[in-house]
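Help: why these numbers?

___
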Amino acid sequence: MTEPRAGGATPSSDEILRVDHLSKTFRTGLLGRRVEAVRDVSFTMRQGQVLGYLGPNGSGKTTSIKCLLGLIQPSAGDISLFGLPSRDPMARARIGYMPEHPYFYDYLKPTEVLDYVGQLFGLDADTRKRRIPMLLERLGLGHAMDRTLRGFSKGMLQRVGIAQSLLNDPDLLIFDEPMSGLDPVGRKELRDLMVELRDEGRSLFLTSHILSDVESVCDSVVILNQGVAIAEGPLDSLLRRDKLFSAATLKVPDEAAISALQQLLSAWPEAGVDQVTEGVMTLRLPSGAVPQLSARAAEVGATLVELHPVRDTLEELFMRKAVTGATAGAEGSDAPDGGGAR
C-alpha cells in the first residue's frame, strides 16, 4: 500500500478534467494533406472516476492524450485540469502518465529510473528513498530492484512504467494501454491495483483494447471513431442492462422453416439471425419472446437445441457504436508525432 496521500490544492468542485470541443488537425505528406485526428470532442471527469477512452486503432486516442498533457497543441478547443488551464505547471504536477510503450535506458536499475523521475518532479531525497522501494514492492518488482532493465521482460518494464507514474502521488493517472505486455496474472494484478487507486480517491483515465478489463474497472467511457466521440457517459446508462435478451440455436429442416422463423423475428427490431449453416440457425431475440419462438419452431419442424441469456457488455456496445455506427466519409487517424497543427 502507498503512504497517506499528499496534501494539495483542492478544486472548488469535484471536476478534475474538462475537454471542450477538442480538435486536432495535422498536415502530412509532401502535399500537406489535412488529417483530422480529433474532431470536436467534449467530455468531463470527476474526482474518483475511472474513465475508459476507447476506439479502434487510429481513432484519435493517443492524439487526445498528447493534447491533454501539453505534448502537442490542439488546433481548437479548451482543456482544463483541476480548474486550471492544462498548460499550468501546477495542474500538470498532479498527473501521473504512462505511455503505451514506455522506454527506459536498459543499463539502469528500476531504482535509478525512479530516482531520476523523482528528481524531475522535484521530490527531495528522503521522499524518493521512502517511496521508490514501496512502489516497486507494490508492483511486484521488489525482487528485481538491483537488476538492470536489460534483463526485464516486457511485462516487467510495463510495471516500471506504472511505478514511475505513481511516484509523484498523483490525483489523476493517465494510462495508455496499461495492459500491453502483461500475462493473465499481471492483468488481474493491474486491475486490482486500479481498483485500489480508485478507492484511494484517485481518478484514472485509460485506453485499452481489452474491453473486458475496461468494463471491470471503469464507470464511464468515451468511444471514438475516426476522431469523433460517438458515445459518452456512464456505463450503466450506455449498456442496455434493462433489456433482457436470449440467444438460441435451432436445428432447421429446410429453407421454409428458416423463412418462417425469420418472419417471426421481424416483429422485434432488436431481434435477428446471427448465422445459418448446415441446417443450424443461431439467433437473438428478447427473452419475453422465447415462448413464441418455441411454438413457431414446433410448427415448422425445427428443434430448439440451446438457449441462454445474453448480458449487454462493453464489447457489444463498442461493436454497436464503433463498427456499425462509423461516421461515413470521416477522415481521422492518429497522426505521426511530427505532424503540424493548423
Observations:
- Residues 184-199 form the longest helix (16 residues).
- The domain at 15-94+170-238+321-341 is CATH 3.40.50.300 (Rossmann fold).
- The chain is about 30% helix and 30% strand.
